[in-house]
Amino acid sequence: MPEYLKNDLQTQLRQELHLTPQLLQSMEILQMNAQELLDYLNRAAEENPMLERAEPAAVQAEYRNLCRRISWLDASGTTAHRVDTAEGKTDSGLDSLDSFLRDQLSRLRLPHEMDALCQYMVQLLDDDGYLPAEEWDGLQELGLPHEMVQQALTILQTLEPAGVAARELAECLELQLKRQGEKDRTVLTIVRQYLPQLGKHHYGTIARALHISEQEVRQAQQKISALQPYPGRAFQSGGETEYVRPDLFVAELDGKWQVLLNEYYLPRLTISGYYTQLINQTTDPETLAYLRKKLHSAQEVLQNLERRGDTLRRCAEAALARQTDYFTGKSGELQPMSMRELAQELEVHPSTVSRALRGKYLQCRQGTYPLRYFFPLCGGGVSRQAVQKRLVELIGGEDRAKPLSDEKLRQLLAQQGVEVARRTVAKYREELRIPAASARRKR
Length: 443
Prior knowledge:
Layout: H1 3-17, H2 21-31, H3 34-47, E1 51-53, H4 56-69, E2 81-83, H5 96-108, H6 112-122, H7 133-138, H8 146-157, H9 169-179, H10 185-193, H11 195-199, H12 203-210, H13 214-225, E3 242-244, E4 248-253, E5 256-261, E6 269-271, H14 273-281, H15 285-322, H16 324-327, H17 339-346, H18 350-357, E7 361-364, E8 367-370, H19 384-396, H20 406-415, H21 422-431, H22 437-440
Parallel strand pairs: 4-7
Antiparallel strand pairs: 1-6, 2-3, 4-5, 7-8
């Protein structure tokens, strides 16, 4: 990071970031997955004498009682559950991209405030290494100077892999070209303005618009096609079966379908009665200041934990309301509902929903799924899961001597009223672990 930026930003960053530490902690806890939350609460209980743990036996007894009422629930309680990525794209359990970026940031030795913001923004990146639009918009909620947020983005975009932290495909590819020292204005212009036409092989259209030959367009296409459109995918597990703890259960209890928050694997924390009483009894100013500080910290942890649980429960209740037929077994397809629609229904910012869903899992009698799985939206008002099901049906009935290309699959879906891009077809096919047409051909 240039020295002048450190000098210019440092004072301003301290003034702004220190105004909202509770907000930062609240969002960090909301975004934690089950294992991260467990580790965080264990550390908090060890470091803060004001936090007192309930007896583990009492929590385990509650869970065993729940298992007696829900036949399919695993009686072991705290064990992880199998998630098959064919049922829905899961988060990358080990967060290796996250760790890789954090390691690079630690070596930059940024000012504390800038490092805190960069570390936070790393958590906002999706599995492909992009910074989603709703997350970029949500950063404005922090009340930080635009220049500060922009500088943090610039820092992330200088890290490896090239193209990481881009907000869209064009920016991702342009970052890679600039990293390579590309100076051909034709290539850069096509990336910035003509990617849709390039994807459809409309070389003549691009050539006429730029007043160049089709051969020059094809040469630019060769450079662009050698780039990595999904820089984060190199860190993914390649569709292996994963094991996770569900954050939520959806089950029928007493004749009513309900959402239950799974906190049985977490330490049950309360404010210590002993140290609270000590606050009222001690006459030592230093001891009193220490205990009050720890009490305030403990209260914030418990409040943020409650907010996290409330947000997750509301998201799952919205899923249950929209996908009732799926949960009750009346339908095998999910109804379309986007995360933006969910945000509007809950009256929160889309970035809050995105943080709440990321890395979270829901268990029902059908299995354990990423919570995101229940908020699908695709072309023609059809859910992502329904489109994948149609793809399986189309490919299952194809002529193996002449397998269907992704473009042909797109056309067939369009005939069924489902309008999706060819690249979307390719993405869904890859998630289903179905090879490309050339690999499916039987001679």
